[in-house]
Every structure is written in structure tokens, then in C-alpha cells.
Design goal:
alpha/beta; globular; eight-stranded mixed sheet; 2 domains; 14 helices; 2-enoyl-CoA Hydratase, Chain A, domain 1
Length: 317
């Protein structure tokens, strides 16, 4: 059964009534089919109205929805003949970041992304998508491999941020993030990055410094989590909603600021409600971006990518 967010309570009540009506046996006193249709029309309108005016804080909740598609779902639906590649060749394999070779619409690609997991066991295994240094060093290794064989790269970003544990810091977390970002910027093959859920801080940028940065309609992308921002500014995470409103973290805000290049529409009610339609729309956007970039040479791709990020913010000075 679908997990409902707190602001979806009226929608949940309608869908509960629809389920109850469908379980009733039709009688002469009431036309169940007509009543169900009426409730479904009302439900669909409420969904559209609710999701057309989500606040930044509500968008964060949608981006974190446990049933939202994750890396493995995208790979299964979009990538053929996927061959996972593991390890950073220095310490270990960090499964918070996964990657490998495959085919997207017949074209060889390197796919790299954060994996959060779907249940308690898998979330613990993947550390909730929070990578350690070895995850970013694995990313660097796969980026270099893609460049060596002239293969375009797709990155799928979905992380609250890099893991802040003592062991990760001891093994050079900041340095690994910086070098992964540097590797993205210096790449001489097309790099298309998609913010599919949470784009948290440097942990996201390390995979998202692409030629094209696409973002799902209800995803979020920020320099720090609202909870972290509130803890710094107000010494309490209770102000997280206020921080979310001030941070300009939504796809719509970031498109205006030219931080991202395109917003990918989500099904009404969010990507978690219709995985198939989500895959269809993201496939279309990825295909268009890769076709556009494939016409450019390696040096041009590198130059345009670096200029894109160096120019961010200049228009507001």
C-alpha cells in the first residue's frame, strides 16, 4: 500500500473510500460504479491541485518518499545489459554509490548514481545513499574508464549528503569529493546528470557537474540540508521548514537561477505514484541531451562544462 505524506491526508481519505466502495457488492440502492467514478474524479483533481502548489518543505518530503524510484529502478528500466563495476582499487567498495556499463537505447553508456535502498535492510546496506570516500574514488575510476573508451556518462543523484562519520573523514572525505568534482569537470565525454531525489551538498555535486544537469519536478538540490542549515543558524532543527523556504532548493527556483538546465515532469502525485510514466519521461530527456552532446568533441565538451559552472552566479552580481 502506498505511503502517504502528512499533507496528503485528504487524498488518503478519498482513496480509502474508493477502496471500500470497490469491495462492496453492487445493489439496487446505489450505483457503485458511478460513485467510484465520482470519487476518482474528485481524487484526481485534489492530487493536481495539491501537487501544483507544493511548498519547498513539502517538495523535500516528496523527494524523500520511500517509494520513489532509486538507482536500481532506473537502471532496470532504462539500461540494457547492465554490468556493475565495484571497488575503488584502494580501500573497498562503497555501495552507497553504484555504477557500471550498459546500453541506453542501443548506445554504450557508463551509469553512476546513489542508491538509498527500499527497506530497512537495504537502506542500512547502502547507508541511505550517503557515500564514503571510497564511493567517490570509485566514481573517479569509472569516469576515467568511460573517457578511456569514449563512452558517455549518465549520473543519477539522490543523496542527503556525503557520510560525515569519523572513519570517512579520516580517509579523506573532502579530498575525495573535490577530486570527483574535478574529474567530472575535466571529462572529455558527454556527462548528463539527473537529480532524481535529493541533491545534498558536495555529496551531490561530486556526481552532478555535468554538461547537462536535469532535475525531476519534485526533486530538491541544495548546498546543505534544511535541517543542517537550521541547526547552524538557529541552533535547532525545528526551523528546518523556514530554512527550506529560504534556500531556493526546488527545481523551479534552480532553473530560474540557471543552476540546472531542464525540469523533467513527474506524474501527478509524484514519481512514486507511477514508476512507468516516470521512466518514460526521463528516457525522453536523457535521449535528447545525449544526442545533442554527442555532436561535440572532447575538448569542446570540457570547455563548455567548465564555463557553465564558472559562470554560475555572475548574472546576479
Amino acid at each position: 500500500m502506498l505511503t502517504y505524506l502528512d499533507f496528503e491526508k485528504p487524498i488518503a481519505e478519498l482513496e480509502s473510500r474508493i477502496r471500500d466502495m470497490n469491495n462492496l457488492e453492487s445493489g439496487e440502492e446505489i450505483n457503485i460504479a458511478e460513485e467510484v467514478l465520482r470519487l476518482e474524479v474528485k481524487r484526481d483533481k485534489l492530487l493536481r491541485d495539491t501537487y501544483s502548489k507544493l511548498t519547498p518543505w513539502q517538495k523535500i518530503k516528496v523527494a524523500r518518499h520511500p517509494e520513489r524510484p532509486h538507482f536500481k529502478d532506473y537502471v532496470e528500466s532504462l539500461i540494457e545489459d547492465f554490468m556493475p563495476l565495484a571497488g575503488d582499487r584502494a580501500f573497498s567498495d562503497d555501495v552507497a554509490i553504484m555504477g557500471g556499463l550498459g546500453r541506453f537505447k542501443g548506445q554504450s553508456v557508463m551509469v553512476i548514481g546513489h542508491e538509498k535502498g527500499h527497506d530497512t535492510e537495504s537502506r542500512l546496506k547502502h547507508n541511505f545513499g550517503m557515500a564514503r570516500p571510497e564511493g567517490y574514488r570509485k566514481t573517479i575510476r569509472l569516469l576515467k574508464m568511460a573517457e578511456q573508451f569514449d563512452i558517455p556518462v549518465i549520473t543519477l543523484v539522490d543523496t542527503p549528503g556525503a557520510y560525515p562519520g569519523v572513519g570517512a573523514e579520516e580517509r579523506g572525505q573532502a579530498e575525495a569529493i573535490a577530486r570527483s568534482t574535478e574529474a567530472c569537470l575535466g571529462l572529455k565525454v558527454p556527462l548528463v546528470s539527473v537529480i532524481v531525489g535529493e541533491g545534498g551538498s558536495g555529496g551531490a555535486v561530486a556526481l552532478a557537474a555535468g554538461n547537462r544537469v536535469l532535475m525531476m519536478e519534485h526533486a530538491v538540490y541544495s548546498v546543505i540540508s534544511p535541517e543542517g542549515c537550521a541547526s547552524i543558524l538557529w541552533r535547532t532543527s525545528d526551523k528546518a521548514e523556514d530554512a527550506a523556504n529560504a534556500l531556493k532548493i526546488t527545481a523551479q527556483d534552480l532553473l530560474k537561477l540557471q543552476v540546472i538546465d531542464e525540469i523533467i515532469p513527474e506524474p501527478v502525485g509524484g514519481a512514486h505514484r507511477d514508476h512507468a510514466l516516470t521512466m518514460k519521461t526521463i528516457r525522453k530527456s536523457l535521449d535528447a541531451a545525449l544526442n545533442e552532446l554527442s555532436a561535440l568533441g572532447g575538448d569542446k565538451l570540457k570547455t563548455l562544462r567548465r564555463e557553465k559552472f564558472l559562470n554560475m552566479g555572475k548574472s546576479g552580481l
